Amino acid sequence: MKIVILDGYTENPGDLSWSELEKLGEVTVYDRTSYTENPIIAQRIGDAEIVITNKTPISKETMDKCPNLKMIAFLATGYNVADYEYAKTKGIPVVNVPTYGTQIVGQYAVGLLLEICSHYGHHDQTVKEGKWADNQDWCYWDYPMIELYGKTAGVVGLGRIGQATAKILNAMDMKVLAYDAFQSEAGKKLAEYVELDELLAKSDVIFLHCPLFPSTEGMINKESIAKMKDGVIIINNSRGQLVVEQDLADALNCGKVYAAGLDVVSTEPIRKDNPLLGAKNCLITPHISWAAQASRQRIMDITVANVKAFVDGAPMNVVNK
After folding, report:
1. Residue 316 placed within a domain
2. What is the residue range of 304's domain?
3. Which residue is catalytic, options 44, 119, 209, 239?
4. pTM flag (> 0.90)
5. Are residues 114 and 216 in the same domain?
6. What pLDDT, on the 0 to 100 scale, is given for residue 150?
7. What is residue 182's DSSP assignment?
């Protein structure tokens, strides 16, 4: 069994091991291949039976050039960069890693909020630059300090990650509202379900934890922002395409939105002309909510299990049944 990993570096920059996968076949690992359609993708897959990818696309054309291909495995939950419907017609199962980073992504979302409220990194830097040592007062702050106790958080998408975030917000004594097309008993224990417009109107902080669908693409736009409280904070470490970025930048620059904490943008890596790069009070990190070593190890373990299940004739976590 030949196995090719097209873009393994972000999953394993050297602190994990491919050894368990190597027990299942002849493994070739490429750190990076291409994030756009490119003939090199099919060249590197060659006659391999299994291709493992994260963000390198697997198109109809690539599959047609690789007649020996029998399974596509993703080192991620998202699988939209593969033509999974065409793979289905060829009898090629596409498998993913459905649950691996629930807790760390929820933790990271709240971490973005806490940084916005207290600017830890900025104040650490000013101390090391000598500002505290030279200060005539015993303390100082360069930004307003925001207390979250008693404020209202709105969670858009109360699935596994939304619930993980809500648990932390409850522990901080925040009132939690939620909007989700599918309500659950577990969700009702953590938040009050409301309609989206009510959540937008009442929330001091809004977390985006919903999937990217045609119905959610661009859901944060000038019309929805107009329904929000003045001075709202928006946190997004779900999908960048949920936000119309120019509209959010405009709202930040005029003060309608006080701040945004983002770990995702519409095009990644971020384009140099992204309007959010120059927006006021906009904290942007490079899509790393998922990247703790523990969560990447879970990706590795589940991917190995996915490959083993396929080899044993019982594929699991198939997204194109």
Report:
1. no
2. 2-100+293-311
3. 239
4. yes
5. yes
6. 97
7. S
